[in-house]
Amino acid sequence: MHFSIPETESRSGDSGGSAYVAYNIHVNGVLHCRVRYSQLLGLHEQLRKEYGANVLPAFPPKKLFSLTPAEVEQRREQLEKYMQAVRQDPLLGSSETFNSFLRRAQQETQQVPTEEVSLEVLLSNGQKVLVNVLTSDQTEDVLEAVAAKLDLPDDLIGYFSLFLVREKEDGAFSFVRKLQEFELPYVSVTSLRSQEYKIVLRKSYWDSAYDDDVMENRVGLNLLYAQFLRLAQTLRHYGYLRFDACVADFPEKDCPVVVSAGNSELSLQLRLPGQQLREGSFRVTRMRCWRVTSSVPLPSGSTSSPGRGRGEVRLELAFEYLMSKDRLQWVTITSPQAIMMSICLQSMVDELMVKKSGGSIRKMLRRRVGGTLRRSDSQQAVKSPPLLESPDATRESMVKLSSKLSAVSLRGIGSPSTDASASDVHGNFAFEGIGDEDL
User: Fold this and answer.
1) Phi, psi values for residue 186, rounded to 5°
2) How many Å separate Cα 210 from the centre of its chain?
3) At 146, which helix (H) or strand (E)?
4) Of 268, 215, 217, whose CA–CA distance to 243 is shortest?
5) Among 42, 228, 250, 420, which one has the highest count of C-beta atoms within 10 angstroms of its own C-beta?
6) Which region holds residue 162: left if phi is over 0, alpha if psi is between -120 and 50, else beta?
7) Which backbone phi and psi does 287 adopt, to 5 degrees?
8) Regarding predicted confidence, which is higher, 273 or 339?
């Protein structure tokens, strides 16, 4: 924790008294309080009575006459060094005399009266906890109030601390500092005068071996889980379903890939010649349609007689992807898990359509009515799209994909007339929501 006195102010005395010099004490670059030399001298005298002169650092002496600008600057530097030395001393910096002085000065500087207020404290997952505290309550008091609200046992309070954070536009927290015993949490957060700043409860230890102590309690376990879940959600493939290694024809034929499904996309990790690793993703909303085909390759020189000499069934997932504004391209993934990949695609489309219609995923649960299972009303509205004709590779390229790609119709035309009639093509309703501005 860094104390600094970067500036002084000339201020008028109370009731029209003579002007005086005020020293602005900053903590980690943020104004904490504003004090006079006489107040700091009083703190010094009190500490000397309690701990002796030999323990204390040097304090700038009084002056009989008014200070020149150069002397004011010199005293500012000396007071800054003094405050830093006291804070860094294990005995002095943790003393109630030192900390209570800074708390009173903070409350006086911000002109916050002592009264009962409701303070919002966030958990790591964004959940809000409201506690009733006094504006003059120190950090330890507020921490105990939050623990009591959560039913966290007293012997586990020491594993957690309160942190001042700034909430960014994406909802992530940027940590400013850990709230200390010399400050008042309510005053610290409200004095910043911005809704971006919040107080968050978080574990305060660094050795993960202590996790075992905390997880013995249900509340402690939930707090740790919320924190770790928040962190996990920032990872690239959080919540994705990872499939076994397989082969794709993109970006080149017979390219070894690892496919993962999640966050409305298929992610492909591939290793190019030269052992170079690359990763690409195919957004579900840019897939016009997809299909699963199955085939049984024949051994070399064998005939096509049924039931003779056939190998293992080969499954392929192929989807037509919008590579650019005017270009659709088929991408094929050969994998024994192709059917599961198709199911994942359909599930992601269902979720997108429910979200687009303002529905909730909770309403997508199946309900038992009259002894049979049926989907809820909101999921009936996003049933699987009708079948499309198998696209012809020789068809003309699209001239312009605009007006939400109205040129691509998702009406049911019938099943393909090719030999692979079992490989129904699934139209993608979510594809209708893509326009030029989304590319």
Assistant:
1) -60, -45
2) 24
3) helix 139-150
4) 268
5) 250
6) beta
7) -95, 115
8) 339
